[in-house]
Amino acid sequence: MVQLVVLREAQAVGTGVLVGMIVSGAHFVLERLGFEGFRVLEARGICRRFIPDCKRPLLQHPEGNLWTVFLPYVLLGTAIARCWYGDMATRMELMPQGLLPTFCFLWIGMVLHDTWFFLVHRLMHSVKILYRRIHQGHHENTAGVTALGTSTGEAADVGLCFVAFHFLVFLYLYRQPSWNLPTVAVYTFFEEVVNITGHCGYKTPLWLHALLTGGVGLTPWAATSKTHYIHHVDCRYNRALYFTWWDRLFETHTDRHPLIKEDLKRTSSFANLMNDLSRFWAANITSRLASVR
Ligand SMILES: [Zn+2]
Ligand SMILES: [Zn+2]
Fold it and tell me: What separation in Å is there between the alpha carbon of 50 and the centre of ligand 1?
């Protein structure tokens, strides 16, 4: 009996390690592909960098990146495996659902994760010790365009911001009479893509933004590729990931930053317009005053 329990636990840990390897490997490939993809789109004039003269280290901590994602997902994988050998596998549906239910799952998942992410992320920026111990490493990856920038020390950050939420999703699914694997895969994929896009530092046209967010990015006040990038330029702003609702509510939202060239241009053209107007009125008033005298 004891041997059977030990064997089951070992089997669960083994599955957890396998899950960790699959997720970290997939993350590694997707992140690299995402950054390289944006470089190709930039070369074709489809996307442009928010800060073109910013350094471009591109690849940082490739090994650390693997470990950071691997470690927390081993824990989640082990937890899933222990239930999997119960009856969760038998309640799994493999046939894809229709577009609408898949989109609803994706949208609701992103709304809920956005709330979770905002709360945890805000806490990390508000409590100094949490910031220094857990989140600071992530902000070493500043405005430089960098793939695989996650170092090993950030496992707790990934664990709290993402894996803990995935554990809640898993608990929800565990309690359902059935659950759909392709729908969960779609959610996980777009969550990953939105996260990668937010770190690339490229302005995306609307069609690409809609594509990369699975359509969720067309929701009013959804975040864009610029939103999280501004957070890395200036961490006082934009602590949510998919939408800007929470940041607007807590007055930490901005969609402009002086370090971003297009905003500078917008500021300077606006400033120029104001200057022109003030010069025009000043000239008019002066000439009228002169005629009155
Ligand atoms: Zn980030
Ligand atoms: Zn942050």
Answer: 15
Question: Which residues have CB under 8 Å from 54's CB, separation 6+?
Answer: 143, 144, 145, 201
Q: What is the pTM of this model?
A: 0.84
**Could you read off the pLDDT of 231-277 as tens digits, one per residue?**
998 999 999 999 999 999 999 999 988 888 776 555 444 444 444 44
Q: Could you tell me if 155 and 71 are in contact, meaning their C-beta atoms sit under 8 angstroms apart?
A: yes
Which regions in the chain score pLDDT beneath 50? Answer: 267-282, 285-286, 289, 292-293
Calculate how far, in angstroms, residue 174's C-alpha sits from the geometric centre of ligand 1: 30
- Nearest CA to 199 among 53, 90, 49? 49
Q: Is 272 left (phi over 0), alpha (psi -120 to 50) or beta?
A: alpha
Residue 198 CA to ligand 1 center (angstroms) comes to 7
